[in-house]
């Protein structure tokens, strides 16, 4: 069930450096924004927050789950008692509970469909189960009931959990906002903001609306919208999105869109529409259930009515008709479909891939086009130091150790990457004092008596040139020229460049990048071979970074700078050409595409709740190589389904012909029926073996 792989996402909270309160950071970074409205804020009461909706539906909150659990429990208790030869009073009531608990809902659904002149397999299952019980085959009927009840419960649970996650997505946007007015500031509900309003966003707060920065500078984590692994620097004139997380600076933002038209609201709408309008993909046997159901019912009635019309014995005719219904009942056909798919699900689960349902497993094998996200999917989603380029007068270890010591108090993702790189080299980090952080520039600290600055090239190199009267000397300095040259080279390679200054002199340029997942190139090559089509990279990141990742992984179809609706448009375009699309992603921004695709796979460790709920399968261990393996395993399961259908059809056909042409004794009919059921069941269980996963991992 879906609860097996619920993965909590990170909780982002406002942060201040050790020894600093957030308010002091505001006054340090942007005093004009922090001080201008402090007094007014203290006098305006915040509106009450709306009552939070339950984020996840409890398992037993669904009636379908409760009835299915009761039916399965009664069956599991009755089954061994029946086999052990216990008296009928011991297991008979338990079978009755199983039939009633698991059969009333599909029976009612079948009767409802019958009133609409539609005959479905649900009603046939209930009738077949009752018919089996009428001639003493309680076990057969109970097994049919349990299979259908559990299947319906899983479907209801998956649907409800997806609805829960869509509601929870709205929690990304704050419920209140600080609106600036001529009289100061006021705290209002975010939904009350109008286009043209100006809002104040303090450090560590989420932005309440889509808009444009009017004043201030900060770094904004907008991974939930664009998928970019690193916070993006925002200054006057830049666009920001509701639900993204502000960094250490204060921003004054003009609201450009109504809350219902924000990017985060459009994501919710797209997921709901895609989930509601996606054509229902059914198991192979469900595609022929109408003809099969009608055929069995008509044939059974004919076998009963026609002989009676010609004076046949009532008891013999009824027995023959019931024998026909038993041998023609779809037990073997149902087991022809379910065991291979369920075995494939179990095998994939043992190897870290959790597939939601048999329908999802069947769909995975039919894909002919694969589209992948970059950050968190092909890459690990966390920056690392790819290179340390020391500048004249400094060594690599010296510059890296100084930078790591200065960055140690910071919680910025780049800071963590620098500290990790220094520790990986075994460098000793000195204590830092007088730490400060300035948005758009970087951090500054005193390390071992020297002033160390680490930050963006635009902030440090430009500021240094115009710092004082020695600007001309600094401009001509070879260190600055070398730093600018190194920055340009690394940025052209798709890296993020960070400059290190020691006592005002350029010491090194650090190149940071998001590391490619191990096995990504081989996974891309296998997906290309399995589908016969070139995998595509759909990302919200910038073009140079996307191109570098594509080159490293072997992807040639690269589409960068995409918003969630752009990814959905790409999926729809492929589908309009008749292609079945598999989308692999991990973030909120991937959820609409995951919902719109024919099949979706989410990376589990860093995946957002919405992506995990929307996807058909989850790679728990974030092994990208498991994606082509589960596709290959699904294709093998589909082949076994076809084999089983042939076996079941031949057995059922032979028994039916025998009953129609000659006289099939009821015990022999039951034996043949049960024999075919056992054969197709055992054949489907072959995919439980570890060797099946190993062969799928080697498939191309």
Automatic annotation (TrEMBL):
<dbReference type="InterPro" id="IPR044492">
    <property type="entry name" value="P_typ_ATPase_HD_dom"/>
</dbReference>
<feature type="transmembrane region" description="Helical">
    <location>
        <begin position="318"/>
        <end position="342"/>
    </location>
</feature>
<dbReference type="InterPro" id="IPR023299">
    <property type="entry name" value="ATPase_P-typ_cyto_dom_N"/>
</dbReference>
<keyword id="KW-0472">Membrane</keyword>
<feature type="transmembrane region" description="Helical">
    <location>
        <begin position="123"/>
        <end position="151"/>
    </location>
</feature>
<dbReference type="InterPro" id="IPR036412">
    <property type="entry name" value="HAD-like_sf"/>
</dbReference>
<dbReference type="Pfam" id="PF00702">
    <property type="entry name" value="Hydrolase"/>
</dbReference>
<dbReference type="InterPro" id="IPR018303">
    <property type="entry name" value="ATPase_P-typ_P_site"/>
</dbReference>
<comment type="similarity">
    <text>Belongs to the cation transport ATPase (P-type) (TC 3.A.3) family. Type IB subfamily.</text>
</comment>
<feature type="transmembrane region" description="Helical">
    <location>
        <begin position="65"/>
        <end position="86"/>
    </location>
</feature>
<keyword id="KW-0067">ATP-binding</keyword>
<feature type="transmembrane region" description="Helical">
    <location>
        <begin position="292"/>
        <end position="312"/>
    </location>
</feature>
<dbReference type="Pfam" id="PF00122">
    <property type="entry name" value="E1-E2_ATPase"/>
</dbReference>
<keyword id="KW-1278">Translocase</keyword>
<dbReference type="InterPro" id="IPR059000">
    <property type="entry name" value="ATPase_P-type_domA"/>
</dbReference>
<feature type="domain" description="P-type ATPase A">
    <location>
        <begin position="172"/>
        <end position="272"/>
    </location>
</feature>
<dbReference type="InterPro" id="IPR023214">
    <property type="entry name" value="HAD_sf"/>
</dbReference>
<keyword id="KW-1133">Transmembrane helix</keyword>
<keyword id="KW-0460">Magnesium</keyword>
<keyword id="KW-0479">Metal-binding</keyword>
<dbReference type="InterPro" id="IPR027256">
    <property type="entry name" value="P-typ_ATPase_IB"/>
</dbReference>
<keyword id="KW-0812">Transmembrane</keyword>
<keyword id="KW-1003">Cell membrane</keyword>
<protein>
    <submittedName>
        <fullName>Heavy metal translocating P-type ATPase</fullName>
    </submittedName>
</protein>
<keyword id="KW-0547">Nucleotide-binding</keyword>
<dbReference type="InterPro" id="IPR008250">
    <property type="entry name" value="ATPase_P-typ_transduc_dom_A_sf"/>
</dbReference>
<dbReference type="InterPro" id="IPR023298">
    <property type="entry name" value="ATPase_P-typ_TM_dom_sf"/>
</dbReference>
<dbReference type="InterPro" id="IPR001757">
    <property type="entry name" value="P_typ_ATPase"/>
</dbReference>
<dbReference type="InterPro" id="IPR051949">
    <property type="entry name" value="Cation_Transport_ATPase"/>
</dbReference>
<feature type="transmembrane region" description="Helical">
    <location>
        <begin position="640"/>
        <end position="658"/>
    </location>
</feature>
């Amino acid at each position: 069930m879906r609860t097996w792989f619920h993965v909590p996402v990170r909780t982002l909270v406002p942060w201040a450096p050790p020894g600093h309160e957030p308010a002091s950071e505001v006054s340090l970074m942007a005093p004009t924004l922090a001080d201008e409205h402090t007094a007014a804020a203290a006098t305006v009461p915040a509106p009450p927050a709306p009552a939070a909706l339950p984020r996840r539906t409890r398992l037993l909150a669904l009636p379908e789950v409760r009835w299915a659990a009761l039916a399965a429990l009664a069956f599991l208790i009755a089954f061994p008692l029946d086999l052990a030869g216990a008296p009928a009073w011991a297991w008979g009531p338990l079978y009755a509970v199983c039939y009633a608990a698991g059969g009333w809902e599909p029976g009612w659904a079948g009767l409802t469909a019958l009133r609409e002149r539609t005959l479905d397999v649900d009603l046939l299952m209930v009738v077949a189960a009752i018919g089996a019980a009428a001639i003493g085959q309680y076990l057969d009927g109970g097994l049919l009931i349990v299979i259908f009840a559990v299947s319906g419960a899983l479907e209801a649970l998956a649907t409800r959990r997806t609805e829960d996650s869509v509601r929870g997505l709205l929690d990304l946007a704050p419920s209140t906002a600080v609106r600036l007015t001529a009289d100061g500031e006021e705290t209002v509900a975010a939904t009350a903001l109008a286009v043209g309003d100006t809002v104040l966003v303090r450090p560590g707060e989420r932005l309440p609306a889509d808009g444009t920065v009017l004043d201030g500078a900060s770094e904004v984590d907008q991974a939930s919208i664009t998928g970019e692994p690193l916070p993006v620097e925002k200054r006057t004139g830049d666009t920001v999105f509701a639900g993204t997380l502000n960094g250490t600076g204060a921003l004054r933002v003009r609201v450009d869109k109504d809350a219902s038209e924000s990017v985060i609201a459009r994501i919710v709408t797209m997921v709901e529409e895609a989930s509601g309008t996606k054509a229902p993909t059914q198991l192979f046997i469900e595609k022929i259930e109408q003809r099969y159901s009608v055929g069995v019912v008509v044939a059974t009635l004919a076998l009963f009515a026609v002989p009676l019309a010609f004076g046949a014995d009532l008891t013999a005719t009824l027995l023959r008709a019931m024998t026909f219904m038993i041998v023609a009942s779809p037990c073997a056909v149902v087991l022809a479909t379910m065991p291979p798919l369920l075995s494939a699900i179990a095998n994939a689960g043992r190897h870290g891939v959790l597939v939601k349902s048999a329908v999802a497993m069947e769909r995975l094998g039919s894909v002919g086009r694969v589209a992948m996200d970059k950050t968190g999917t092909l890459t690990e989603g966390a920056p690392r130091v790819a290179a340390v380029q020391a500048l004249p007068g400094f060594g690599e270890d010296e510059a890296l150790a100084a930078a790591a010591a200065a960055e140690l108090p910071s919680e910025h993702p780049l800071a963590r990457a620098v500290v990790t790189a220094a520790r990986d080299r075994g460098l000793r980090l000195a204590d830092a004092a007088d730490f400060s952080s300035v948005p758009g520039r970087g951090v500054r600290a005193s390390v071992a008596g020297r002033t160390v600055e680490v930050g963006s090239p635009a902030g440090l190199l430009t500021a240094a040139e115009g710092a004082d009267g020695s600007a001309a000397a600094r401009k001509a300095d070879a260190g600055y020229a070398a730093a600018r040259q190194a920055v340009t080279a690394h940025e052209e390679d798709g890296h993020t460049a960070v400059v290190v200054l020691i006592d005002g002199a350029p010491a090194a340029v650090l190149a940071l990048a998001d590391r490619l997942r191990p096995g990504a190139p081989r996974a891309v090559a296998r997906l290309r071979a399995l589908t016969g089509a070139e995998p595509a990279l759909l990302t919200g990141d910038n073009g140079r970074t996307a191109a570098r990742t594509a080159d490293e992984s072997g992807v040639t179809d690269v589409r960068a700078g995409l918003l969630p609706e752009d990814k959905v448009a790409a999926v729809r375009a492929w589908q309009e050409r008749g292609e079945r699309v598999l989308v692999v992603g991990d973030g909120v921004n991937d959820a609409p595409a995951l919902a719109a695709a024919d099949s979706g796979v989410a990376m589990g460790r860093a995946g957002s709740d919405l992506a995990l709920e929307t996807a058909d399968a989850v790679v728990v261990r974030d092994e990208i190589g498991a994606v082509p393996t589960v596709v290959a395993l699904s294709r093998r399961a589909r082949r076994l389904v076809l084999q089983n259908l042939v076996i079941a059809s031949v057995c059922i056909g032979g028994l039916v012909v025998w009953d129609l042409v000659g006289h099939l004794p009821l015990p022999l009919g039951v034996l043949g029926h049960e024999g075919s059921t056992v054969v197709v069941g055992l054949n489907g269980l072959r995919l439980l073996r570890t060797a099946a996963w190993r062969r799928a991992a080697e498939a191309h």
